[in-house]
Amino acid sequence: MLTIDTTRKISFNRLISNGDLVIVYERHDNMKAVTVSEGSVLQNRFGVFKHSDWIGKSFGSKVFSNKGGFVYLLAPTPELWTLVLSHRTQILYIADISFVVMYLEIVPGCVVLESGTGSGSLSTSLARAVAPKGHVYTFDFHEQRAGSARDDFERIGLSSLVTVGLRDIQGEGFPEEFVGLADAVFLDLPQPWLAIPSAAKMLRHDGTLCSFSPCIEQVQRSCETLQSNFTDIRTFEVLLRTYEVREVKTESSEINGNGGSNVSLPCKRRHGSDGANVVSYPNSSVMARPCGEARGHTGYLTFARLQCLS
Predict the structure, then answer these.
(1) How many Å apart are CA 265 and CA 232, to the nearest integer?
(2) Domains and CATH numbers, the chain
(3) What's the N-to-C CA distance of the chain in angstroms?
(4) Residue 121 labeled ligand binder
(5) What tens digit of pLDDT does each residue of 149-188 get?
(6) At what angle do helices 94-103 and 121-130 cross, to 10 degrees?
(7) Is 5 marked within a binding site?
(8) 188 is in an annotated binding site
């Protein structure tokens, strides 16, 4: 994520500096995170890129190698960071993350509690959503994982927005210092029903909770526990299907009486057996078809709202 100036409104550094983290983009399925270091180089199939040439350029710049090849230097936004981070655990991806941020009603200034931290994929998006004056407190029972996540948040400039704690939330619950202070709680635990009573104590009146579980049996047990203190209990499964849309150039076989191409011919539409839709024009076709690798089930998202007693 772009470094945040916490003394002002949401404000970002737009120029690359020595020590910054950048996402080197070759294509949508080939990216890597690189820390800019003057005197260092990046070598890939396109040639050798000098880091010194990157300093002072804007994020999003196209930079060239000694062979004339190029890459793009992108800011480490939560969306891109999710695609390049080290997977210490199974992570949440963009489809689920966007749903979580929306349904938990997270806005700037919110206080969010999260367990467990894992690889920190969701935490980065939560941090951006609560910036500049909110905060995310995330907990993991695994000491090495918590330390690695803390290092990552420092690396991408989020340490002022995210605090990592070492704690077994299933066994101990959330720290008492957060009672009644959280606007939202997110649980990604093997047995979330054990942490739900503690989460209820942490939430403000009308606060929201989300539990992510890969198995429907976990959802059923969690929903049973939620009945005691929560209302508006709903479970979703987010399935993502992407499409490839591209133009294919063709030579027109239709010639008008003057020997020129007849560009006023009506277009033709056809549907392929693979789900592709093709619109044909005199000199080109535009094809739209589902990508071969469709992401299926990742998990179930269960949302609930704390009941107001008054």
Answers:
(1) 55
(2) 21-76 (3.10.330.20), 82-239 (3.40.50.150), 243-290 (no CATH)
(3) 41
(4) yes
(5) 999 999 898 999 999 999 999 999 999 999 999 999 999 9
(6) 40
(7) no
(8) yes
